[in-house]
Amino acid sequence: MAEYNSPALTVAMAFYEAWNGKDLDRAMSYVRDDIVCEAPPGRIDGIKQYRAFWAPFLQIFTKADVIAAFGDGETALLMYDAHTTLVASALTAEWFTTKDGKISRNRIVFDRIPFEAARKAAS
Fold it and tell me: CB of 8 within 8 A of CB of 78?
């Protein structure tokens, strides 16, 4: 795991590198049990629901490219381009809050319309 000047960015990037490698177990090791996530599908409470949110995405995920990453002591912002089997490019931003070295809050922003259009075209 790379070290960054920001403790929160170090955790956020470790989480990113784990799921980018499709290692969901390792990714969840950087997440608090009581995580709260706000994402386009809605609010996600707790690590069990958070894991259930990520698992299907990793099934269609192929790779991601970091565009920008910033952080301080407790928060980090990561922007990346996600590539999937459904959508060639999905610009995504994630804002993280950390507590005791783990992710406690996550806000994810991405455009769902291309994914919905791809699913509709496939059916």
Answer: no
